[in-house]
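Let us practice reading a record.
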Amino acid sequence: MSERACARVAAVAVAVAVAVTRIAQLARKSQVGPSTPPDELVAVIRRLWPDPPSAPGKIMLITRFGAGLVREKLPPLIAAIHAAGLGAPVLWTCDPMHGNTRVTSEGLKTRDFDDIVEELRCVSTLPPPARHAHPHLVAH
């Protein structure tokens, strides 16, 4: 292979590595929690999906709030997504296991079943405009 061809292959490899790193960073942001700013979430979705009408499909956001914060913190995020015109391609998935983690005095991670059920109940009964988000409830 010529030097020029090797240089092109190397440049493409670097570009691919940078793109993969950026996608991985954005993918980590798909886990939405109480510290997620609405404007940052809108910006991430726009970067991942700049023109939803021309590219059919969905973006799945995994919510991890905990029973104590979901009712207060999730509706503003959903409202921001809808206000930005991005409501249709977003699939909201509630993962009540991670937001409700507690650590015992022995260092063991655990969850209270009532907290898990409460987070699912809160998400399924959100007031408008949040209830128009059609959340999917998932527990594993």
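A brief commentary: Residues 3-28 form the longest helix (26 residues).
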